[in-house]
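User: tokens in, sequence out, please.
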């Protein structure tokens, strides 16, 4: 079926009505927050989005209830995929997705589906937070990891973290290594590289923008670190995995 006629007409109407979609970078930041397990930020984001829910969203159905339901299904699909990329088991992520889609399918109230969107996002975020704390025992290291994921864009040092937790630097360093299996610096590098992987796949941010948003001292430092951890450059990673996503999407 040729869609050009419908596409051109829809694009014309959108221009005439002054309609503009939510910028991809802004939308991606929302999903990245869920994948990082930052529950409080997810709650804040949803309060803001709920107050202006339809802004930047396309019309997926002329029926208002079905339109909201379709948007919910799209959101669940994206959230589950981002969470899998951040370490959630695919069986868990997709089964949870099935549960929420089935609930939305039975829901006959627009407001309830919108509220369920927030519930779903917070549920995934909480599960991601626990995954990132897996095998972590002490409250000090739990707080430490939470702080790291919420401040990846900032300069993070074991000395600063020790001061934040009111612990000695030596004690924190030993405890962190014992409970995570990684040094403080190694853990941060891996966290930043994992965040960069998602940004490379799901956004069109430049390498400079990614390096600045994740606290790297420069673009060259980001590229060098990424290649050291993954074995390939950010450019090659983006090409490889975006190509894989296109193949996967064509299958479904």
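Assistant: Sequence out:
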């Amino acid at each position: 079926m040729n869609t050009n006629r419908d596409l051109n007409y829809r694009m014309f109407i959108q221009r005439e009505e002054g309609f503009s979609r939510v910028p991809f970078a802004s939308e991606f930041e929302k999903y990245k927050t869920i994948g990082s397990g930052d529950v409080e930020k997810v709650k804040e984001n949803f309060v803001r989005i709920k107050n202006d829910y339809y802004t930047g969203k396309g019309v997926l159905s002329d029926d208002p209830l079905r339109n909201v339901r379709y948007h919910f299904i799209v959101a669940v699909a994206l959230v589950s995929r981002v969470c899998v990329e951040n370490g959630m088991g695919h069986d868990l992520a997709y089964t949870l997705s099935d549960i929420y889609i089935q609930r939305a399918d039975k829901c006959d109230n627009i407001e309830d589906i919108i509220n369920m969107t927030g519930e779903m996002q917070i549920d995934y975020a909480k599960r991601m937070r626990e995954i990132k704390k897996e095998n972590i025992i002490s409250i000090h290291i739990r707080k430490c990891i939470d702080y790291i994921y919420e401040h990846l864009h900032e300069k993070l040092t074991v000395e600063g973290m020790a001061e934040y937790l009111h612990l000695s630097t030596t004690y924190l360093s030993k405890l962190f290594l014992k409970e995570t299996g990684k040094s403080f610096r190694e853990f941060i590098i891996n966290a930043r590289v994992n965040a960069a992987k998602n940004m490379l796949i799901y956004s069109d941010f430049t390498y400079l923008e990614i390096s600045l948003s994740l606290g790297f001292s420069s673009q060259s430092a980001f590229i060098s670190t990424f290649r050291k951890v993954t074995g390939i450059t950010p450019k090659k990673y983006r090409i490889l995995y975006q190509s894989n996503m296109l193949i996967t999407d064509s299958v479904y």
